[in-house]
Specification:
- There is one protein chain.
- The protein is α/β, with parallel strands linked by helices.
- It has 2 domains: about 280 residues, Zn peptidases (Aminopeptidase, 3-Layer(aba) Sandwich); about 120 residues, Alpha-Beta Plaits (2-Layer Sandwich).
- About 35% of the residues lie in helices and about 20% in strands.
- It has 14 helices and 19 strands.
- Strands 1-2-6-3-7-18 form a 6-stranded mixed sheet. Strands 9, 11, 13, 14, 15 and 17 form a 6-stranded mixed sheet that branches. Strands 4-5-19 form a 3-stranded antiparallel sheet.
- Strand 1 and strand 2 form a beta hairpin.
- The longest helix is centred in the last third of the chain and has 20 residues.
- The radius of gyration is 24 Å and the shape is globular.
- About 45% of the residues are buried.
């Protein structure tokens, strides 16, 4: 009896369970340069096990290695079509360790979920894609050419993606690109996401004295912490709108198709509040529109003076804040940093310095692209009518370097759900979602090869 593609996927996932566990066992924390080479060696063997030709790129100065793998279309496949998968092999640090209910790097099944660091972001996703490849090989063969590029620095901002794409554009060339991950929203809709917001991370620094002072001297001496907080308060209004002159000038309005897709997206405030434990009112009356096409300015952390146990009556000499802005199409990270500095000078905070840390431009594919429409159509086979087309994610990734250089549409889909907690303790995916995603991946590849 001939296996269906779904049955082949299920069989492959069972056979590949140990491989998933072994991959997650590797503590590939890029911020700490842990087990990078061991992970690269593992991936070489994993790709070779499905018949791929594998090359490890070590020619980008200062970068962790990139793993590049290719698989040709099968005898009955379409050798004129190529799909590129982007994934990353690095993960976030597991801390705080005392909040984990299982060992962070041991794949554990808990209440129908896989729990481990990296299982949702992004190691599990890559393993599901390899299982989909195996299932196709066991049935009708690969329907198109496949390429995989896997980086090891996504969790630290992908600082070497741009030169890698430039140096290897010819090898990476593809008709379409499938991004690292995605999944289901709080209403259990399967999201097909077509872009990402950009980011600009920066610090504000101010120094009011050469040394910390006794707090009694606050009678006449300025306080760096107060100075910084007043500067921060000048940048954003009570309505959540950024007050920097020119900040919104380059924002591109949504197209008709993007407006239609955004209007169709749900937002389950009750579930969202439960998942994140929100204790304050939302800062917008239209969270869906804000997630898609609103810019933000967020204080990530503040540091000044004495922060230890007990009391120390000190007047701090300096203060620092870390911030980020999430950007939408047409906004340029470095330009915004310059606008913020100019604003601070203009309103009397010339002593508050803006230090640019990193930036990534936003990217959004055209929702009318044939591959995006195919991805939506194919999703109905697996997810029924619970499918949503999302113009872009609220988060950030280095899509722009691929999209602009390779001139190919990018879509993202995957195994996550609203409670996956990808950067938090007890990161998880639901096993049923993992199985669905692998099946959907195989179906997308087959339909792409046919059409």
């Amino acid at each position: 009896m001939t296996m269906t593609l779904k049955q082949a996927v299920e069989q492959a996932l069972v056979a590949d369970h140990d491989r998933l566990a072994a991959y997650l066992k590797l503590e590939t924390v890029s911020a700490q340069h842990r087990e990078i080479d061991e992970t690269v060696d593992f991936l070489e063997q994993a790709f070779k096990s499905v018949g791929a030709t594998v090359t490890v790129w070590r020619d980008v100065a200062g970068s962790h290695p990139f793993v590049f793998a290719t698989l040709p279309a099968g005898p009955a496949g379409n050798a004129d079509k190529t799909l590129l998968f982007y994934n990353h092999y690095d993960v976030q640090p597991p801390e705080p360790l005392d909040e984990w209910q299982t060992a962070p790097f041991d794949l554990t099944e808990v209440d129908g979920k896989y729990v481990a660091r990296g299982v949702s972001d992004d190691k599990g996703e890559l393993m599901a894609r390899l299982s989909a490849v195996k299932a196709l090989q066991a049935t009708s063969g690969l329907p198109c050419n496949l390429k995989f590029v896997v980086e090891g620095e996504e969790e630290i901002g992908s600082p070497h993606i741009a030169p890698m794409v430039q140096q290897h554009a010819a090898e990476l060339a593809a008709d379409v690109i499938v991004w690292e991950t995605g999944g289901k929203d709080a209403d259990e809709n399967f999201d097909i996401t077509c872009g990402v917001k950009g980011i600009m991370s920066f610090e504000l620094r101010v120094k009011t004295a050469e040394k910390d002072l006794h707090s009694s001297l606050a009678a006449y001496a300025d306080n760096a912490a107060w100075r910084l907080t007043r500067a921060l308060a000048s940048l954003r209004g009570l309505d959540n709108r950024v007050l920097v002159e020119g900040f919104y000038d380059d924002v591109r309005a949504l197209t008709v198709e993007e407006q239609r897709a955004t209007a169709a997206l749900p937002f389950n405030e009750t579930t969202t509040r439960e998942n994140f434990g929100l204790k304050r009112p939302l800062v917008t009356t239209d969270p869906v529109a804000a997630l898609v096409n609103a810019t933000t300015m967020t204080i990530n952390g503040l540091s000044s003076g004495y922060e230890g146990e007990g009391v120390k009556t000190v007047l701090p000499k300096q203060a620092t804040a870390k911030l980020d802005c999430r950007l939408v199409p047409n906004q340029e990270p470095k330009k915004l940093a310059q606008l913020i500095q100019a604003q601070l000078v203009r309103i009397g905070f010339e002593d508050v310095e803006v230090v640019y840390l990193l930036g990534e431009k936003p990217f959004r594919s055209k929702l009318t692209d044939p591959f995006i429409q195919l991805a939506v159509k194919t999703a109905a086979k697996v997810y029924g009518d619970r499918v949503k087309l999302v113009p872009n994610a609220a988060g950030t990734g280095p899509q722009v370097f691929f999209g602009e250089t390779l001139q190919a549409p990018i879509v993202a889909f995957g195994t996550t759900w609203a409670g996956s907690d990808p950067h938090a303790p007890n990161e998880n995916i639901r096993i049923a979602d993992y199985q669905q995603d692998a099946w959907y991946t195989a179906e997308v590849l087959r339909d792409f090869g046919v059409e």
